[in-house]
Structures are given as structure tokens and as C-alpha cells.
Amino acid sequence: MRQLMINNFEHFNSKVYKNNLNNKPIKSPTFRIYILLFTFIFLFIAIGTQMVLMAINPISINDKKKVILNDKFDRKNILDKNGVLLATNVKVNSLYAHPFEIINKEKVLNSLIKIFPDLDIDTLKKKLYGNKTFVWLRKTISPEQQILVKDIGQPGLYFGPRQMRIYPNGTSAAHILGGTRYGLESVESAEILGIAGVELFFNDKLSDKNYFLEHIQLSIDIKIQALVEEILENGIKLMGAKGGSVVLMNSKTGEIISLASYPKFNPNLRPKNLFKNDPSNSPIFNRGVQGIYELGSVFKIFPVALALETELIETDTKFNTHNPIRIGGRTISDHKYFGPSLSVEDIIIKSSNIGTVRITQKIGSNNLKKFYNDLGLLDFTTLELPETKGTKPQQPKKWKNLETATASYGHGIAVSPVHLATAYSIMVNGGYKINPTILKKTKTNIKNDQIISQSTSKEIRLILEKVVTEGTARESNFGGYGVGGKTGTAEKPNPIKGGYYEDKVISTFASAFPITTGNFVLVVTLDEPENNFGSESYRYASKTAVPVAAKIISRVAPLLDLEKK
Amino acid sequence: MRIVLFTIFFIFCVISTIWAYKMNYETRAKKKQIIEITKKINFTLNRIELLKAEWGFLNSPERLSKLVDENFLNLSLIPISKKNIVYDLKTIGNFNETTNDQ
């Protein structure tokens, strides 16, 4: 029975098996294995390739939290000629709050007032008790203040990273550097924008992360700049002047080594322009660049140079200075009688208006105008400061006889001290054109147009030297350096009544040293100075601007590598 | 023969799986490390920048001249003048004469 059952089962099973065989033939088992095999091979190659790629190039990893190297270069540094830092960024924090998260608002209010005494309590109250969900409390706070704020121990106060622009040298070179402000602000960062000076002029380059330069290097030498500013400030205080400026220029390249203006300011706490009536009274006014003045007798050297260049005169040609000249209804006279006649040299040395006008009459209006234009006295300077764009020199509308005559001794034509320094550089550097620049020059000896010849330039240097040794500037001690220069005292125009003030002058000394080569040009301008040290009070440049210039040259010249030849 | 091939392939599979697994975690660890290092570099760079600024502030000409004035009794530093500069030793003889003149 049992056997029968097994047989039946077997029979049944074999029947099913046979049926299956007939209906669905089993595919070759190797075929399935191959499918499996290829799937695995494909997957492993895919994963393996990805691994290798990841190993080779770790940057291609997708990373949600991106940490970028060198995020410090938000704004590039500004360096001086020798690589000293003039402007840089430091990381600080900003403080903001979510007022609705703060539990004890009174405690926060009192503590914040204690930490930041300059915060206004009423505006702070409005911010904290107002309906806003987000308020800025301070744009920059120091690390110490950050710790104190954390110590309040209240939620709802947050810190955001900030870059702060700082000027380590304080007031030195402030007018050149200008200043910055914050542009677009967010919790993570804030944009820094230049608002004046180099910061504004090179704003794009300074903030462009793709720009190849790591920093901008100026031609300014900060130690000389600070020294010049100090001497200028002392000089202005001694002379009771309203203000003043100094331009020190390398006459061979046009690089500005020092550009000082007083009153000064601190670019770290740049003041707002509060003086709307007279911008020149504001400390942020750059007198050397923005101040346009009638500079007076310093101009006399230009018509003389042109006349020498065109061989109309020799240095010893005599001119009649006996009588004042009448031109166009005006009388031009000297401040004292110089005798019946003066040689060309003496006209400059003694600063005779009559003599200069007589020379100019030989030259003619058009030639003088063209010459002034060649010297760059009638147009904007090329200086890389935004302030130069707004200051075009003033010149007579029509160059008639009278205007030409006054322009020859620096009246009726107003230029900035930088213009004057540029023109004097051309006078003494061998006569070729230079463009004033604030950037350190990498290429030197670029051939430029000759304005006056080498020999005329040499003659001019000799005349300028005599002004210092025996002329109007002879009383000052220049520290043993060969100096040549020309003084100028010009009455200030009266803007209210018209005409000129009698007791307010701009006194100028334009000089070059060492005069044998004329490598450096220094222009000192003082606004309303008065020298009261003697029995009388003097306003002439020889008693005001010249002593300041003498002090500057005797202190600065040893720092300029003059005698290294 | 086929068995041997399959066995070898199976062993290869196992080994490469282990390798892939380990590599995955190693990579993640390296990634974290890179972030840490980058943060450290940034911190150091910022610190260098801060120190440079501080150095600039400490060496600012205004501050130095103030210090020179304050410590004049100890240091007795005076401004450099033409007399202090000698470029050619042969001129020392003349140099003494000129200083006497002044």
C-alpha cells in the first residue's frame, strides 16, 4: 500500500515534470549568470570610477557648507612706496538683534548702554521695543565688546562677521587715501565702498577679486609724508595761517612723494562735509589738489623760460623797470623801486612785475597761452585722485594784452599746487613733459615730449639758485643743500566785494633741490599767513612759506638718497 | 574550471566592496579635515592681517616721533641731517671742514 502511494506520487511528479519540460523549456543557466555578472561589473565600474574621480579631485566634492580659502581679500590693501601698510582690513563683528526673542529687554537695554556709551538710549529703546523682527544695533564692535555682549546672557542678540577698513597711520596721508563707507549690508557680510581719494579712484580695482594685483602701491613715502605734515602743521600754527599745503614731487618721473594738506582729519573717523559755504574750510578738503589759487610771482619763471627758449632774450638782457606800465586802463608796478633797469636774472631774483611784463610783451599772448597749456597749467592734472576731476584751473576768458600781462606774474590765472609742481618739474628736470602720478612707477626713462631744451632748463636752475642765494629767499637755512626756488605772494580775491583783500594773501614757495640736477620739486602754499616774530608783521612768502620749505628740505633731503650717485 | 573563475570573481567582488566601503568613509573624513584646515588657514591669515595692521599702527610715524620726544633723555635721538651722511670716505677731510663752517 505504502509502495503504491510512493509510486503514485512519483508518477504524478514525473508527469508534472514532463509537462513542464514540454511547455516551458528551461533556459540555459549560464545565460542568467552572465546577466548577473554584467550587472555587477557595470555597477562596480561605475562606483569605482566615481571613487577614483573623487580621490583625484577632492574639490569636486559637493559640499553644502562651502569654506573658501582667502576670503580675507574682500578689499585689497594700499601700500606706500616702501611697502608700508597704508590701508587694510581687519575682521570685526557687527551686532544685530531679534527683539522678540529677548526675554529681559530692560536688562539688555541697560547693559548695551553701559558697553556702548555712544549709543542713543531713545533710538535703542525704539529698536528693542518696536515691532520689527530684526534690528541693527551696531555696524562694528571690537572683540572685547563682543565678550561683554555675550556676558549679558540674553537670547536674541547676534553677531555677524564684518570687514572693517582701517588706516594704521592715522592722519598721515589722509587726504590721499580718502575714506570708505559700507555699501550693501547683510548679516554675513557688508560691501566696503570708497568715498574719496585713492579709495574712490581705484574702488573697482580694490574690490575686484579677479584683478591680478594683490594691493595698490602708491608713490607716497609715509615717513616723509608724516614728517612734511608735522612741519606744515607747526609752520601754519606759528604763522597763524588758515591752512596750507605741500607738494613734494620727483621731477624726473612725476611721482608724488608727499602731498600734505592742513587742516587734517582722521580717515578712520572720516568727518562729514559740514562746511557748505566754503568747502576749503573743511578738513577733508585737499588743498594741494582741490585748492585753486592765484599763486602770484612763482609764475614769473615761465615767461622767462619761454623767452630764453625762443632766444628772444639772454639771461643778461637789460629791461627798463623805471616806470610802471599802463595796459588796458590798469597800471602795473613793483612793490618797490628797483632802479632804472634790471637784467633778466635780476627780474626773477628781485621779483619785478614790470620786468616780467616787458619780457611777456616780447613773447605775445598766443605763445604764452600755448606755453602754459604745454606746462599743463590750463587743464586737469593726470593725478589719480577723484578730486582732480572737479578742479579745472581758472584762466582769463580772453587773452588780451592786460590778461596776458597779469597772467605772466600769476594773477588772473588760478591753479592748484599740484599744477604748479608739475610745471616746475618740467622747468628743472631737463625740460621734458611729465604727468603727475600717485602710483609707484615700475617703468622709468619713458621718452616724453621736450617742452624746453636741456640748456634752457639749466639756465632756469641757475636763476632759481640765485633767488635762494641772493634773492628773495636768501634769509632761510636750507640745511646745506643746494636749493633753487621762487617766492610768490598773491593777494586773495574777495568773493563778497570783488577785487582783492589787502591783508589776506596766499604765500607760495616753489623750489627744486638739489638744484644741480633738479631731482625733486617742493611747493609750499600757506593760506593767510602772518609772520609776527620781528618788529613788524610780514606776509611775504620770504618770511612765511620759505622758512617752512627750508625746514622741510633740511629734514626730508637726508631721507631721499640725494647724494648717492 | 568555471567554479574556480567564479570563486576568484566572487573574492574580487568582496574585496572591492570592502575597499569601496572604506574609501567612502575615508573620503568623508578627509573632506571634514579639509574644511577644518581651510578654517584654520583663514583664521591664521586673518590673524596675520590683524598683526600686520597692528604692526603698522605701532610703527606709524606719528607714534614713533611721539615716542622719540618722550624718551629723549634716554635715547637722545635727533633728526638726521646732511652731516650724518657720508657716501665717499675720501671726502671725510672736506666734510670736517664744512661742518666747522656751519
Question: Mean pLDDT score of chain B, rounded?
Answer: 83
The end-to-end span of chain A amounts to 133 Å
Note the main sheet of chain B: none
Overall structural class of chain B, as computed from helix and strand content, comes to: mainly alpha
Question: Low-confidence stretches of chain A at least 5 residues in length (pLDDT < 50)?
Answer: 60-65
Order of helices and strands of chain B: HHHH
Major sheet characteristics of chain A: 5 strands, mixed
Relative helix content of chain A: 25-40%
End-to-end distance of chain B: 111 Å
Shape descriptor of chain B reads: rod-shaped
Radius of gyration of chain B (CA) equals 36 Å
Quickly count the helices of chain B: 4
Which descriptors apply to this entry?
heterodimer, A: 565 residues, alpha+beta, Penicillin-binding protein 2a (Domain 2), five-stranded mixed β-sheet, five-stranded antiparallel β-sheet, 18 helices, 16 strands, B: 102 residues, mainly alpha, 4 helices, rod-shaped
Characterization of this structure:
The complex is a heterodimer of chains A (565) and B (102). Chain A has two domains: 77-217, Penicillin-binding protein 2a (Domain 2), CATH 3.90.1310.10; 223-560, DD-peptidase/beta-lactamase superfamily (Beta-lactamase, 3-Layer(aba) Sandwich), CATH 3.40.710. Chain A has 18 helices and 16 strands. Chain A has helices at 2-23, 29-56, 105-115, 121-129, 143-151, 174-177, 197-201, 203-207, 222-239, 287-290, 301-309, 344-350, 353-363, 365-374, 401-408, 417-428, 454-470, 545-556, and strands at residues 77-79, 85-97, 135-141, 157-166, 179-185, 190-196, 215-217, 243-250, 256-262, 318-320, 325-327, 330-332, 341-343, 484-493, 500-513, 520-527. In chain A, a hairpin with a 5-residue loop joins strand 8 and strand 9 (256-262). The longest helix of chain B is centred in the N-terminal third of the chain and has 57 residues, at 2-58. Chain B is mostly helical. The interface between A and B is large, with 47 and 40 residues.
